[in-house]
Amino acid sequence: MEKVNDLLRDTIAEVVARELKDPRLEIPLLSVTEVRASRDLSRAVVFVSAMAAPGHDETEQAQAVSGAIDALTHAAPFIHRTIRRQLHLKRVPWPSFELDPRIAGAADVQERLRSLGTT
User: How is the beta sheet containing 29-37 ordered, strand by strand?
Assistant: First the structure.
């Protein structure tokens, strides 16, 4: 299962980077960090890391990230068709996209450490 998840992660990341043209995905840091496919390969949760450009306030950051997740969700049928053509699996799971909470937590810790250093 781990190999399938890694293959899906790499393939989905390539599709997102090269084939999707949605302006909501044009943010500086957008990456597919992990995929967790169900055992029956009917669905897969795709975890995404997304951050807007430095200098954006929290509201703008949240809007950019939300827009990116919405764009990926909207593109799920295209992504599914594309990876189905590229991969030779018996079943290709339907992707659903979520923000990777580990990345957001790490960014929060960094910001807190940065603010402690400036006081």
Answer: 29-37, 43-51, 94-99
Q: Which two tokens stand for residue 39?
A: 């055992």
Alpha-carbon span 70 to 60, nearest angstrom: 15
* CA distances (Å), origin 115, targets 56, 57, 110, 112, 119: 16, 15, 9, 5, 7
Mean pLDDT, 10 residues at a time, the chain of 119 residues: 95 95 88 95 94 75 88 97 92 94 65 67
Which phi and psi angles does 40 have, rounded to 5°? -85, 5
State the DSSP H helix or E strand holding residue 1, giving kind and residue range, or none if neither.
none
Interatomic CA distance for residues 99 and 65, integer angstroms: 8
